[in-house]
Design brief:
Keywords: Signal. With 321 residues, the protein is of the alpha/beta class. The protein is built from eleven helices and twelve strands. The chain has a six-stranded parallel β-sheet with strand order 2-1-3-4-5-11, sandwiched between helices. The longest helix has 22 residues. The chain binds alpha-L-arabinofuranose (AHR).
Length: 321
């Protein structure tokens, strides 16, 4: 056989092998092979995120999908690498809980070029909305506004507020701050006197609250926490400082995890605005709509509730996470 013919045969073999690999992936899966979904979770150091991960994993099992899971451990570069790996493996769909709003453009473009729908859960990105299929999550401005209204009500519109912010650059951090300020800006005696990130993390929330107390312990009336985990850390710091959380310093937070309900029952936490992490079923509904060629709104908004300390004891047993 001439050199040129050998080369052509080799090319043909490569094409067949390549085609077989491709057929086993996302484009041409047999009717019986389960759909494969990649889930990129930004972090796993918070109770809220465990609940979200369980929801996404549990629903994959219910629907018979194969789930590839990656925990980015709060490092955006890990998350981008995970999404890239899902694309390379030819998954049928990607569920992405982004760490921050910016920086996902190139990898979202790669998913789009590969024809893989991306459903964003719980946090939005700043990219153009053509870059993802839909976003499923809460209205964080609404959460911040409702929280501020409760604080105004419970303090008579007069409070020196310490704020524990979430991860810098994350959608809920930006919008919970904005929503809270939308309301308190109408009250001249409601002032944020200290504000710093606790990274949505219980340990860091405690550390930042300790620093706040060391600096201004006698001048804080209220702690507004962008999530429950930081509130639990702050409560611990307040106790160790020798004050009574929930009374000497009022504590408010967002999420609605069971630990927060227990803290309300114990009188340590004053109120919670909910942010549901149980997004698995809606995420797969969205992917199924994408696979069926349907068009969904770019934001499928979650419904959240408001919980006051006085109602916590009667509700705690019904909390799922
Ligand atoms: O994006 C949702 C927020 O992020 C939750 O409030 C929080 O606990 C999480 O890390």
């Amino acid at each position: 056989m001439k050199k040129r013919s050998v080369f052509l045969v080799a090319l043909l073999v490569l094409a067949i092998v390549g085609g077989t690999v491709f057929a086993g992936g996302q484009q041409d899966a047999g009717a019986d092979s389960p759909k494969v979904v990649g889930f990129s979770q930004c972090d796993s150091q918070q109770a809220w995120r465990w609940a979200e991960t369980e929801s996404v994993q549990g629903e994959a099992a219910v629907r018979g999908y194969e789930l590839k899971y990656n925990d980015a451990q709060a490092v955006q570069a890990n998350q981008i690498a995970a999404v890239r790996s899902f694309i390379a493996q030819g998954v049928d769909g990607i569920i992405l809980a982004p760490q921050v709003m910016t920086g996902f453009g190139p990898v979202l473009q790669e998913a789009k070029d590969a024809g893989i729908p991306v459903v964003l859960v719980d946090r939005l990105v700043a990219e153009d909305e053509d870059m993802y299929y839909t976003f499923i999550g809460s209205d964080f401005v609404w959460e911040g506004e409702r929280m501020a209204e409760i604080v105004v009500e419970e303090t008579g519109g007069k409070a020196r507020i310490a704020e524990l912010q979430g991860t810098p650059g994350a959608d809920p951090t930006i919008d919970r701050k904005k929503g809270f300020e939308n309301i308190i800006n109408d009250y001249p005696d409601m002032n944020i006197v200290l504000s710093q990130t606790g990274d949505f993390n219980r340990t860091k929330g405690k550390e930042v609250m300790e620093a706040f107390l060391k600096a201004e312990g006698e001048n804080i009336d209220v702690v507004y926490c962008h999530n429950d985990d930081m509130a639990i850390g702050a409560i611990q710091a307040i106790k160790e400082y020798g004050k009574d959380p929930g009374k000497d310093i009022l504590v408010y937070s967002i999420d609605g995890i069971k630990d927060a309900f227990q803290a309300m029952v114990d009188g340590d936490l004053n109120a919670v605005v909910e942010c549901t992490p149980l997004l698995g079923p809606q995420a797969y509904d969205a992917l199924e709509a994408a696979w069926a060629g349907e068009v969904l709104p770019k934001w499928v908004m979650s419904e959240d509730g408001i919980f006051l300390q006085k109602d916590a004891a009667s509700i705690i047993d019904s909390r799922k996470y």
